[in-house]
Structures are given as C-alpha cells and as structure tokens.
Amino acid sequence: MTSASDSLTPVVVSGFWHPPGASRSEPAILKERNQDMVVVADEYPSRILSRAAVEAVAVSDRLAQIPRRLRFPDNSLFETNDNDGIDALLRRHGRRESLVPRLEEFRPRLLLFVAATLLLIAGIFRFGLPVLADVASDLTPQSVLRVASRGSMATLDQTVFQSSTLPADERRRLETEFAALAAAADPAYTYSLNFRRGGRMEANAFALPDGTVVLTDELVNLAKGDDDMLMAVLGHELGHVARRHGIKQLYRNAGAVALIMMIAGDVGSAAEHILTQGAAVLTLSYSREAENEADRYSVDIMRRVGKDPEALARFFRILYRRGDKSPQAFSTHPGTADRIRAVEAYAREGR
Amino acid sequence: MPGAPFLRRDNGPLPAAVDSEQPFEPVVFTGTGREYFGIWIVNILLTIVTLGIYSAWAKVRRNRYFYANTHVRGHSFDYHARGGQIFKGRLIVFSIVAAVGVVRFFNPAVGALLSLSLVLLIPWMISRGLRFAAHNTSWRNIRFRFTGGVGGALVACVIAPLLTVSTLTLLHPWAARRFNAYLFDNLSWGGVRFRVNVGTGKLFGLWFKALGLGILLVTFAAVVAVLLGMNAKILSPNLNSHTLSDPMAVAVSAFLFSFVILPLLLAACYRIWIMNAIRSSVTAEWPLPPPAPHAPPPTGVVFARVQSTVKPLVWCWIWVSNLILTIVSLGLLRPWGAVRMARFVYAHTALAVTKDVDSIVDSLNPEGSVTGAEFMDTGGLGFDFGF
C-alpha cells in the first residue's frame, strides 16, 4: 500500500541472507540508509552483513509471489517474500516497475487477453499466413524456382522414375499438342513435357514450380487415345505452376510450424502435437482450394486453344469408376463427384 | 549462533551424513493455476505479437515460476538464464535448421546428407545444453554443475534410444539407466556429487513384470472382446457395414481397449515404475579422498537420499484428464493442468537431507552453452532439473 507518508517511512524488509557462494543462510533484515541498501542480521541489528548503493544491487524481476532475490556486489544474496516492500523501495529510488508482472495479475482483463490471443491465432491462420505466403511466393525469383525444380527432378529420377517406354511418334504427337497449350499459358515460365515410367507413382501427371511437367506412361495408357483428356490434365498442372501453388503451400506450412513452435513451450508437448495435426488438416483445405483453382485453369486454357473445356471431367469420371470415391474432409483433393460437377458447371458458364 | 564452519573440498570437517532414521520430506510445490494462468496467457499473447521473439523471455518466466515454487527443506530453486541468452541460442538453432531446409529445397540429396551430419552434432549439443541448464539452476545460493562429456552423451542419448527401438524395447531398462546415470553421475552441487545406485537387474525385472502383466491382461481383454464380438454378430445378423448397433459398438470399444488403450496404459505404468526405481536410488554424496593414491575412492558421506513414490495409474489419470480438459477448453485450462501434474509428482518425491546442508561453499563454475540447451528444447528434448 502506498501513501504520502511512505515517502518518509524507511522501507524495512525481512528475509534471509546467504554469504557469497555459500549455502548457509541466516534470518536478516534489509533497510534503506541514505542511498544504500543495508542488510543486517535479524538477531544482532548492529551486525552489518552487506551494504551497497541501491543502483549497484541486482534485483530479480517480480514474478507472481515468488521470492525476490537481491544480489549484492560482493556476491551475497538476500531473499525475501515481501515483493511489495521491495517494489516500494525501488520506486523511491527511481527504478521503474516492470509492466509485465502487472499484466500477469489475475484480474478480469485476462479475459481480454484470452480473447485477443484467440482472435490473433485464428486471424493468422485464416488470413495472415496465406497473405504472407502469397507475398513470399511473389517475391521468390524464377532462378530459385529453377534450381529447386531441377534438384527435385534429379531426386525423383534417381528414386522413383524410370525411362519412358512410350513409342516415339506418340511422344511427338503429345509434345506438339502440349506446345500449343504452353503457348497459351503464363509466359513467365519455361514449360517442358517430360515422359517417364511412373513405377510406384502409377498413372500420374504433375508439374514442378519452374514449369517442368511430368507425364507418366501409365496415365497415357489409361487415356486410351483420348488426347484432349490428357491435355486437360496437363492444363490443370500448368494451373498449379501459374498460380505457384507448390511454393505457397511450402511457405504456409513453414509459417504454421513456426507459429506452433513459438507457443509450444507453454502448451506442452501433447497439445503441440494436436495443434500440428490441426494445422495439417487446415493445410488440406488450402490444397483443395488449389485443386479447384487448377481445375478452373484447365477449363480456361482448353477453351483458349480451341479444345473441349469439359475434357477434364472425363478424367474424373474414369477415376470415379475406378473407385476413387474418397470423402473430402481428410483428402488433399476435393471429392471426385464434386469436381466433375464443378468442372462442367464452370465450363458451361463461359459458353 | 555461529554457523557451521565452511567446508573446503579436500580438508576441513566433513558434513554429517543423513541419519538413517531421518524421515523423507516431500518436495513442496506452492504454485497455483490461478497465478500461473496470468503468466501463461501473457506469455502466449506477447510471443505472438512479437512474432516469436518474446518466446525466449517467456521461457525464462515460466521456468522461474516453477523453479521458485519448488521447495526442498524450506528453500526453493532459482533459474538464472536470461532471455537474451536464450534468444541468441534459439536464433542460432533456427538459422541452422532453416539453412538446412533451404538446401533441402534446392537439392534434396545434399540436404539429406546435411541433416544426417547435424545428427552427429547432437551429443555435443546435449552435453553443452545440460551444462548450461545445470549452471543456471541453483538451490540455497549454490549453482548446480554438470560435467558430462560428448562420449557419454553419444551413448546415453543417441545410441541407447536407437538400441531400445531396434530391440523392440528389450534394452529399455539398460537405456533408461544409462541415460539417468549420464544425467546424475555427472551432476554436482557445491562439491556434493549425485549418483544413481540402482542395479540394471532390478530394472530388467520391472520390464519382465510389465511384459508378463501385459500378456495376461491383453489376452484376457482380447478374449472378452472376441466374445462380445460374437455376441454382437448373433444379436444383429443382418447388419450392413454402414450402421452400428449397440452390441457392435460395445465390441468395437472392447477391441480398442484391449489392443490400444491397455497396452498404452501398461507402457506408461512401466515407465513410472522405472522412474521411481531409478530416482529412489539416487544419492548425493560428499566425496571422500581415496585411502591411497591409486586406490578407488570409497563411498562418500551420504548427503541426501531420494524417494520417488509416484503412483502410475493416478499419473495416467491426471495426464489423460489434463489433455481432455486442455482440448475442451481450447487450451485455457492448461495452466491448471500443468500445476496439477507438477504438484502431484513433487508430492510423491521426497528427500532426506543432512542437517549440515548449510555448510557448502561453491567453487568456480563454468557456464556451458546456451545454444545446446535451446537445441534440446526445440528438438523436443526438453530437460529440466525438477527433481
């Protein structure tokens, strides 16, 4: 409690005192005398244990009700539970109180902090991270994308892929059609069509961030001559390149991991794992948005080169018939039936 | 009253040993969820607002709160690390991890090699990190001291876990003892040395006990589950895969219990048995000089003994209920949960300390590396000296 008279009454704090570097402790009293702090023995007040100028004493920061520890220049230690007394003494000698301990007091305003924290976390995940990821991906130069893609392609060739067994004339035909597609796509990237035997990857097509597109033999065989369908799938992949989905996903994930790690110490390891899983589920919803965007890109680019804009839907029908009916919630891709509907509706819109 | 004479390392009077009749006094934890909640929410809020920079100072406040509320014989611990030190350490760790991540992005093969070479750094970071953590922990004005080397860390913290996994936990008792021995045998406080005294045989005994109990209980539970399953099939013969009848649900729960929950519970109980056995064998000794220049040093004067009686099932209950409450409350009840677990474990950890505890003097105590300590924390290997 502070009052006007406190400026006259000298502060007296009781606690105990350790000699420098020793475990021995004895009851002691801390007093002010002029500009100094003096520690005297409890039983024999005339026996001075330690004395120093107030500025020369290292006082620990206040933290809830834990004991306050004062380290004197001679390395002796005075310890007390009287936090208020120490605060009063420091105030009188012009040392400002730290803001943080006052914020931590158990008061109704803590509810405000809780609300602020929840809003901030939700806001960061929903808006902050995507915006930051977009900015970061826009700033990433082409040269970086090229080097990264080359590295990934090299690794894939060493681990998963084998040389394509497609006949040369089939490859030429597909390359010609792909060139037409690439000409209509975002000119910032250098597109190349690469044929591989998928092996473990089976019937697949994907694109690396710099415009390197890979088409597996298994997918070509699955198409059974339906070139338009293949071009639609490749168009979808070009959509991923133009919109930089891969890079954005990377930045978003890095940001989410960083955010969770920051508060990990306070929430404990079990909750940290749960938050990481939660972030992974959110990532899935981002990637589903990306797939929808790439589907629309495919419809647009097929129309631009004069091919059937609904060709992509034929691919999804094949997938659907093969049993890919996986539900949406825990998948990186939207449900197949939904994609068929979406593609056909979007294609008809533009007609 | 004149205090007991200060003790020097190799001359002067020895402290009195712990009386064998002396009762164990439980460690006292005086923290409350109410107090910790304020610290906790401000930590999180400021960490997010400062894009993670405050997390170093948040850690200091959290540790100081728990250390200073942990009392042994009426005196609490203290945590001395400063936010700035921790921040620098975290920055270095973050930079290394980010740099390796970038390399992996460009060239996955080289990046993988680099990650592997980082693994070799781990024992060094662990030993330096423990040194830092110990140096920044004190009791009664005397700091702890850790002198474990890189070789010991390699065996105790890298090889031992690998062997545990590769032998399907058969070697876990040995690994647990190795790890704790590395921690405690290299730990000292003002010249008083700690030591793990439990025999590996006793720990293996606990492993076999857990295995035997596990086989018994899981078999029994599985039989019950199978019977319930058969019962469900009889009661609902024309079931299609999309509906779940009540007997079916009970049977599924029984299977889940016997093959997932029961083994997890047993594993947790086993870990607590091991922890109790190891901790209860820890002694703190004032070393005695060897009788002859090359003779092995005798057992020292026993300065303190430990007794750990944590009840495994109660621990499991507290852990699970804490997790459920944390999830249900969007994390807000976590501070109460953390305090509850600390109070429980400390209440079942007791020490018998010699009367001459006030006669110790600190000698020179080198600092250790903060980077190592921060690597351990971010790598999920958080150690603390909460007894």
Please give a structural write-up.
- Chain A has helices at residues 83-92, 99-103, 109-139, 142-159, 168-184, 217-223, 227-242, 245-267, 269-304, 311-321, 336-349; strands at residues 12-18, 26-33, 36-41, 48-53, 58-59, 68-71, 77-80, 162-163, 192-197, 205-207, 212-216.
- With 351 residues, chain A is an alpha+beta fold.
- Chain A folds into two domains: 4-103, Roll (PH-domain like), CATH 2.30.29; 121-349, no CATH class.
- In chain A, the strands form two sheets. In chain A, strands 4-3-2-1-7-6-5 form a seven-stranded antiparallel β-sheet. A four-stranded mixed β-sheet of chain A has the order 8-9-11-10, with helices on both faces.
- In chain A, strand 10 (205-207) and strand 11 form a beta hairpin.
- The N and C termini of chain A lie far apart (79 Å).
- The relative contact order of chain A is 0.07.
- The model of chain A is unreliable at 1-6 (pLDDT under 50).
- Chain B has 387 residues and is α+β, with helices and mostly antiparallel strands.
Helicity level of chain B: 55-70%
General shape of chain B: globular
Order of helices and strands of chain B: EEHHEEHHEEHHEEHHEEHHEH
Percent in strands of chain B: 5-15%
What integer is the average pLDDT of chain A? 85
Biggest beta sheet summary of chain B: 11 strands, antiparallel
Give helix and strand order of chain A, one letter per element, not per position: EEEEEEEHHHHEHEEEHHHHHH
Helix count of chain A? 11
Broad structural category of chain A: alpha+beta
Query: How far is it from the N-terminal to the C-terminal residue of chain A, by CA?
Result: 79 Å
